[in-house]
Amino acid sequence: MQQSAEEVAVFTECRAARKYGLVISDGCARTIAGWYVDGSATGSAGDVFHATGEVIDANRIFAEYTMGGIRYVGASARHRRAIEQFAVYLLTRTGRGPIPGWSSCRAGFRR
C-alpha cells in the first residue's frame, strides 16, 4: 500500500528523532494525533490536546489515542514507531500550556 505524503513526512521525522535522540516537532505530533482522535470524548485530555496542543495529562492522552494500547498492538511497524515518538513528545510537553499557531501545525512544515 502506498504511503501518503503526510505519512512519509511523519515516518521520516520519527525515524530521525529515534536515531538521533530528538523529540518530534509540534507539527508531527499534531499530525499523529489527527490519525487517532475520534472526537467522541469532547473535553477529554486528548480532545484538548488535538485542539490546542496543551498536554494536561500525557498518560490520559496516550491511552485515549491508542485505546489503551489496542491501536499500538495492531499497528504496522512504522505506525508503532510514530506512536512511540508521540509518547516521547507528550512526556516532554506535560504541563505546558496551549501552543500558539497549533491549528496550522502539520508534519513536514516548519513554522
Task: Please give a quick description of this structure.
This protein is mainly α.
SSE run:
HHHHHH
Radius of gyration: 13 Å
Query: What best-fitting shape do the alpha-carbon axes yield?
Result: globular
Helix content: 55-70%
Assembly state of the chains shown: single chain
- Secondary structural class: mainly alpha
In DSSP terms, counting alpha (H) and pi (I) runs of 4 or more, how many helices?
A: 6
Low-confidence stretches: none
Largest sheet: none
Average residue-wise pLDDT: 89
The number of distinct β-strands equals 0
The N- to C-terminal Cα distance equals 30 Å
Strand content: under 5%
In words, what does this structure look like?
- The chain is 59% helix and 0% strand.
- It is an all-alpha fold and 111 residues long.
- Helix 4 (58-66) runs antiparallel to helix 6 (77-93).
- The longest helix has 17 residues, at 77-93.
- It starts with a helix and ends in an 18-residue tail after the last helix.
Q: Any key phrases for this structure?
A:
111 residues; globular; mainly alpha; single chain
SSE arrangement:
Elements: H1 5-20, H2 26-36, H3 45-52, H4 58-66, H5 70-73, H6 77-93
